[in-house]
Design brief:
The protein is of the alpha/beta class. About 25% of the residues lie in helices and about 25% in strands. It has a six-stranded mixed beta sheet with strand order 5-4-3-2-1-14. It has a six-stranded mixed beta sheet with strand order 6-7-8-9-12-13, with helices on one face. Strands 10-11 form a two-stranded antiparallel sheet. It comes from Actinacidiphila acidipaludis.
């Protein structure tokens, strides 16, 4: 299974419509990939909170959704289109990831559960998702998470319980916490005994330098491939059978102890 990560430079000097067109062409060029992955909020920028409302769009029929569906068809690949600022018909904004099949059909949408900002930015302006989302591909099962979710291992345990073997994590991760990005991606892979496909943005937007360094981590925690800080296309071959083999050879997941009572203070 060939996965291609597109680490996009979110340059505030580039108009959103121009970036959307450029990224769609880049996706369409990835023929031969089985799965193409884009970063979090690449149309507007994960820290460009002042622009969230203006750039919000529906999941069905919005400009990014239309462009990404067409790009998936052109590439003939599954496309995790990163995330968009979704405007729900009932009013709230969400940070929503979109997964398209090779025929351009929207197969899954995941609303980010853990919002970053400590009562500012995303945390103040967006509602949080409430559902764990996993999606079955012909070769494997994807578990969907986004950026700040990476700090919450319980979500990834639930994705494993839902059958996930490849954990896809689009992000807009700050450069000043790059060490955490690598550490947490490896930790989630080791504890889940699954691949982690972590795709971030490059460049600087809203004054926040991005970490870049998109990576693919195998079920044993080894980094198979890692990008640098700038815009880059990163391609790596995954072996879904390796997940089952790792879980059988080192069956740590079967030793989980659940239902431990919460201690009283």
């Amino acid at each position: 299974m060939r996965a291609t990560l597109l680490q996009i430079d979110v340059d505030p000097a580039e108009q959103v419509a121009d970036r959307r067109e450029r990224v769609a062409a880049l996706v369409a060029a990835q023929r031969g990939a089985d799965l193409v992955v884009l970063p979090e909020l690449w149309p507007v920028g994960a820290f460009a909170a002042d622009d969230f409302a203006a750039e919000a769009e529906p999941v069905d029929g919005g400009p990014t959704a239309v462009a990404m569906a067409a790009a998936a068809r052109a590439a003939g690949a599954w496309l995790h289109a990163g995330s968009i600022v979704e405007r729900d018909p009932e009013g709230p904004l969400y940070n929503t990831s979109l997964l398209y099949s090779p025929d351009g059909e929207l197969r899954a949408a995941y609303r980010k559960i853990h919002r970053f900002g400590f009562d500012e930015g995303e945390a103040a302006l967006m509602a949080g998702g409430r559902e764990i989302v996993a999606a079955r591909l012909p070769q494997t099962v994807l578990g969907l998470a986004t950026c700040y979710d990476l700090r919450f291992p319980e979500q990834f345990r639930l994705l494993v319980d839902a059958g996930a073997e490849v954990l896809v994590v689009p992000a807009g991760w700050p450069a000043r916490r790059r060490a955490h990005w690598r550490l947490l991606a490896q930790a989630r892979a080791v504890e889940s005994q699954a691949y982690v496909v972590a795709c971030g943005t490059a460049g600087t937007h809203a004054g926040v330098e991005q970490a870049g360094h998109s990576m693919v981590v195998d079920p044993w925690g080894e980094v198979l491939a890692e990008a640098g800080p700038g815009e880059q296309v990163l391609t790596v071959d995954l072996d879904p059978a390796r997940v089952a083999a790792t879980r059988a050879d080192f069956p740590v997941l079967r030793d989980r102890v659940l239902g431990i009572p919460t201690p009283r203070p």
